[in-house]
Design a protein that fits this description.
Elements lengths: L6 E3 L4 E4 L10 E10 L3 E4 L6 E6 L5 E4 L5 E3 L2 E3 L8 E4 L2 E10 L1 H8 L9 E3 L1 H4 L1 H12 L3 H18 L5 H12 L6 H8 L3 H12 L3 H18 L4 H7 L5 H12 L3 H5 L2 H4 L1 H4 L5
Length: about 280
C-alpha cells in the first residue's frame, strides 16, 4: 500500500492520507483527514510542540473553538499550547481537511507572526490575506491527496523562502529541547550558544512564541501524553518523563488540557498519531 492511500483508523474513524515522501522543508509534516459522519463529531485539541494549520474543504464546515468561546472556520491556525478546552467540531455529513504541522522554527518564516501565536487560534486570512483563500480554493479543486500535498508544500515553500529565519542559536536550542524530551536546563542552553540567560529568554520568546521554560514543558507534556496513549501507567510515565511525581504529571496535564491523564490517554488524535504523523520524535 502506498503511503498516500487512505487508511481507515481511529475512533471516530477517519480516512487518513500522508505524503509519499517527506517534505523538502524540514519541520513540516502533513496529513489528510476525511470521512462521512452520520452524526456531529467533536474532538478535543491536545497541545503538541508544533503550529497547526487546518485547511477545510469538506461539504460541511469544520469549526475550531479556541477554548475561550471564540470560533474560527475555514483556514485556521492554532499556535503552540492553545487554551484548555480547544476543540474541533464537525456536523454530520462529508468532511475533508488537510492538517499541516509546522515546527515553530520554520513557522517564524512561514507565518511571520509566531510570537503572536503562542496559544491563539486565528484564521489564515489574518496572516496571509487573500493568498489564504486562493490556496484554499486550489486545495478544494484538487482531485487527489497527492495534488493537495504538492499545492500546500509549494505555498509553504514560497512563504518560507520570502520570510525571516529564526536566529541559529534559537533553532539550536529548540532542537536540543526536542531531542531531550524537554528535560534540558535553560541556563545550560544559554551557555552552549554563548548567550546570557536573559538574551536567550527574550529572543526565544519573540521568535518561537513561548518562553524556553514553557516550550520545554510543552515538549515534555507531549512525550508524556503519547506514552499515556500507548498504555503506560501514569506513575511510570511520570518517572520516565522527568516529573517529580505522579501529582506533578497530573497538574501539568490539567494545565495544558483541562483534563485528567486518563482522559488525555484516550484522545482520538493521539490514537492516530502513528498513522498521521509517522516518524514523529
Amino acid at each position: 500500500m502506498r503511503p498516500t492511500d487512505p487508511v481507515r483508523v481511529g475512533s471516530p474513524a477517519w480516512d487518513i492520507a500522508v505524503p509519499a515522501r517527506p517534505s523538502r522543508l524540514a519541520g513540516v509534516t502533513m496529513a489528510g483527514f476525511s470521512d462521512r459522519a452520520d452524526a456531529p463529531v467533536e474532538v478535543e485539541v491536545v497541545p503538541h510542540p508544533a503550529i497547526m494549520m487546518l485547511f477545510d474543504f469538506g461539504d460541511q464546515p469544520l469549526v475550531v473553538d479556541d477554548g475561550a468561546g471564540r470560533q474560527q472556520r475555514g483556514c485556521v491556525t492554532a499556535g503552540l499550547a492553545p487554551p484548555p478546552g480547544a476543540r474541533g467540531r464537525g456536523q454530520a455529513g462529508s468532511f475533508a481537511c488537510l492538517q499541516v504541522r509546522l515546527s515553530p522554527v520554520i513557522a517564524h518564516a512561514v507565518l511571520g507572526a509566531t510570537g503572536e501565536l503562542s496559544g491563539a487560534v486565528t484564521t489564515l486570512d489574518d496572516l496571509w490575506g487573500r493568498d489564504a483563500a486562493r490556496i484554499q480554493e486550489r486545495l478544494r479543486a484538487a482531485r487527489s491527496w497527492d495534488a493537495r500535498f504538492v499545492i500546500a508544500e509549494a505555498a509553504l515553500a514560497r512563504r518560507h523562502d520570502a520570510g525571516r529565519a529564526v536566529d541559529a542559536e534559537v533553532a539550536f536550542c529548540w532542537r536540543r529541547m526536542v531531542a531531550g524530551g524537554g528535560q534540558v536546563r535553560v541556563e545550560r542552553l544559554a551557555t552552549e550558544v554563548g548567550w546570557s540567560r536573559k538574551r536567550l529568554w527574550a529572543r526565544f520568546r519573540s521568535q518561537i512564541g513561548l518562553t524556553p521554560k514553557r516550550a520545554a514543558q510543552l515538549i515534555r507534556f507531549d512525550r508524556a501524553a503519547h506514552r499515556l496513549a500507548a498504555g503506560h501507567s501514569a506513575a511510570t510515565v511520570a518517572a520516565d518523563s522527568g516529573y517529580a511525581d505522579q501529582s506533578h504529571l497530573h497538574r501539568d496535564v490539567m494545565a495544558f488540557t483541562g483534563a485528567t491523564p486518563a482522559t488525555v490517554a484516550s484522545a482520538p488524535f493521539l490514537a492516530v498519531d502513528d498513522v498521521a504523523w509517522p516518524g514523529r520524535p
